[in-house]
Amino acid sequence: MGVDTARSILLAVGSWDPEPWVAAIRAGDPERPLQVWPDLPVPSTVGYALVWEPPQGVLARLSGLKAIFSLCAGVDRLMAQPDLPYLPIVRVVNSDLARRMTEWVVLQVLIHHRRQRTYDRQQAARIWKELRQPAADEVRVGIMGLGVLGRDAAIVLRRIGFDVAGWSRRPANLPDIACFHGPDALDRFLARTDILVSLLPLTPQTRGILGIRLFEKLASDGPLGGPVLVNAGRGGLQVEADIIAAIEQGVLVGASLDVFESEPLDPKSPLWSLPNVVITPHAAAASEPKALIPPILDQIRKFEAGKPLRNLVDRDAMY
Ligand SMILES: NC(=O)c1ccc[n+]([C@@H]2O[C@H](COP(=O)([O-])OP(=O)(O)OC[C@H]3O[C@@H](n4cnc5c(N)ncnc54)[C@H](OP(=O)(O)O)[C@@H]3O)[C@@H](O)[C@H]2O)c1
Predict the structure, then answer these.
(1) Which atom of ligand 1 is nearest to the CA of 205?
(2) What is the pLDDT of residues 133-161, one digit of tens each?
(3) Hey, which of 2, 50, 108, 216 would disulfide with 256, CB 3.0 to 4.6 Å?
């Protein structure tokens, strides 16, 4: 088989370092021709594009392209490209990514549940004072988005003992987890939620959903003194002015944010210094080349042997 049969891979990873990705591709399929953006000598031979934020117009130039593999779980920026070819887009479904996200979510839920920010302040002031500690099953965690990441986090939080519910677009069923779905069930889901965890994708339906009107519907009678927001989905889901106002007015008593409307977060943003607000720099779950590349290469081999691609983005739902 020659390179003119469009079996080569194009790797386009934007501002990421391409080297670990190249190394993982070469280790997993040494025979396969690889072109690394911006070095694209023979565009017509590219059959598969492995991308994170590819420059506009690049994918449309690849006349032999058969499939696009996103290298991050969120495809909102890819979907926003006006000239995105109408080809299958494979998203990231990977246990390494899910474990990383679950670590971050569990850490944040526990920081708020165990009053860690208050103990940090007490430690700085050398204050020895035990605070009343509710049991995990007194705290109602609500996870928006019961997809690959939301489900994993829900199961681990339930195992720790939290009273867990989830909200998704379509009906879901998870043991010991109250599952809500659709816009009609949103208010009931919010009314039983003390810690709201957002693992939604950014779509036209979810943009700006984390705003003051939603925060006001969260439970205010829980053992943490008020509701807490945890968002690792996308910054476009949240209205930061509303989060600031909600914290200042006590509508929210805390927040953990990994994603922001504009990244990096402006050093002048009040979010940096609000009490009980935890900021991480879009670091909740990084895409790891050694974990992500082998299943992608496996999918390509199976696809070339006539098998269908798995984990495809739904072009209508936009995720
Ligand atoms: N911060 C980070 O480091 C980081 C890393 C990776 C991913 N992420 C973000 O995490 C997001 C989730 O990833 P994933 O792999 O879990 O995605 P996924 O498997 O596609 O799951 C998305 C979930 O959101 C639900 N959903 C989508 N639109 C909805 C709507 N309008 N109303 C109610 N529920 C809706 C889906 O409902 P259905 O189950 O009915 O489809 C599904 O449960 C990604 O899109 C990405 O933005 C962030």
Answers:
(1) 31
(2) 999 999 999 999 999 999 999 999 999 99
(3) 108
